Amino acid sequence: MTAGAPGGAIGTAPAVPPSRGPFAVPARIRSGWYQRSRQERLALRLLLPVFGLVFVAATIPFVLAVVQALTSDDGRFIGADNFGRALSNDQLFEAIRQTAIYGSVVLPTEILLGLGLALLVHRTVKSRVLRAVIYVAAMIPIVIPQVAVGVVFRLLYIPDYGLINVLLGQTGNSQILWLSSPPLAIFAVASVDIWQWTPFVYLIMFAGLQTVPPESVEAAQLDGATSWTQFRHIELFYLRPLLLLVFFFRLADVLRVFDHVYILTGGGPGTTTQFLSLYLYRIAFRFSDLGQASALAVLVMAFMIVLYTVISRFLPADTSS
C-alpha cells in the first residue's frame, strides 16, 4: 500500500487544483458564463452567430491575402519578395502622398463640420420633431450608394454642361475644368466625400452629446462658464471616445475610397487622384500582379493596427477616469 499524498486519495496522484492544468481555461469560461445573468447569456447566444459570420468573413480574406503575399503565381513560397517589390515601386509613395493630401482635406473638414453642426442642433433646437427631421435628412447622403453619388457629382462638375459651370456662367472657352486640373480635381473628389460623410459625423457627435449629464452643464452655466469653456471642459470629455471611433472609421474609408473617385476622375489627371485604393486596383487587375497587391493590403492592415495602438494612448476611449 502506498502512502497517501496530500490532497489526494491513497495510491493515486495528487489532485490538480481546478485553477491549474489543461482544463483551467475551459473551467474559467464556464464559471464566467454561469456568473452572467439569464438575459446576458441569451443576448450572447443571439449574437454568437453574427459574430461568427463576421469573424469568418473578415478572417478568410485576410488569411488568403497573407498566403498570396508570401507565394508566387504558381504557389511557390517566396517569402518577402512581394513585399520588397511593392515597397520599391516609386508609384506607391506617390499614391501614399496623394492619399495623405486627400485625408488631410476630408478628415478635419468632416469632423469639424459634423461636430459644429451637432453642437448647434444640440444647443439651439429643442423641438423633438425638428430634431427628427434633421436626423432623417442627415441619413439620406449616407444611405445613397457611392456609385450613384459619383454619377450625380460628375453631372455637376462636367465642364461642357455641368450645373456648377452653368450657374457660375463659366461656359465655352471660359469653362472651369473641375476634373482636369490637378488642384480642382482634388477639391472635386473631396467635396463628394465631405457631402456624404459629414452627416455621419454629425449623427455620432449628436448622440454623444445626449450622454452629457445635464446637471454638469447647468452647474457650469451657473458658474458663468462660456460656451467654449462648457465644450472644452465638459462636453469634449464625453466626446473623446466617439472622436476616436469616428476618426478611425473615416480613416479606414479614406484608405479604401474608390467608387466616386473612379467615376469622377479615374485616378487622374495624371496621378493626382490615384489614391492607395486605386493604385491597389491597378496593380491587381490591370497589371495582374496579385502577389504585390496582396502584400500592399497586408501592409495597410498592419499600418492601421499600429496607428490605432499609438493614437489610442493619446485619445483613450474611456470616460470613467
Determine the N-to-C terminus distance: 61 Å
Q: Strand share of the residues?
A: under 5%
Nearest-integer average pLDDT: 84
- Radius of gyration over all CA atoms, rounded: 27 Å
* Record field, number of beta strands: 0
Shape: globular
At the fold tier of CATH, the topology name of the domain at 91-314 is MetI-like fold
Instruction: Report the total helices.
Output: 13
CATH architecture of the domain at 91-314: Orthogonal Bundle
Give the CATH level 1 class of the domain at 91-314. Mainly Alpha
**Could you describe the largest sheet, including whether it forms a barrel?**
none
Overall SS class: mainly alpha
According to CATH, the homologous superfamily of the domain at 91-314 is MetI-like
Low-confidence stretches: 1-11, 317-321
Considering DSSP H and I runs of 4 or more, what fraction of the residues is helical?
over 70%
- Helix-strand string: HHHHHHHHHHHHH
Summarize the structure in words.
- This protein is mainly α and 321 residues long.
- It has helices at 24-35, 38-69, 81-87, 90-124, 128-143, 146-157, 163-168, 182-209, 214-222, 227-255, 259-264, 276-286, 290-314.
- The chain has a domain at 91-314: MetI-like fold.
- It has 13 helices and no strands.
- The longest helix has 35 residues, at 90-124.
Topology diagram in text:
Layout: H1 24-35, H2 38-69, H3 81-87, H4 90-124, H5 128-143, H6 146-157, H7 163-168, H8 182-209, H9 214-222, H10 227-255, H11 259-264, H12 276-286, H13 290-314
Helix pairs in contact: 2-13, 3-13, 4-8, 4-10, 5-8, 8-10, 10-13, 12-13
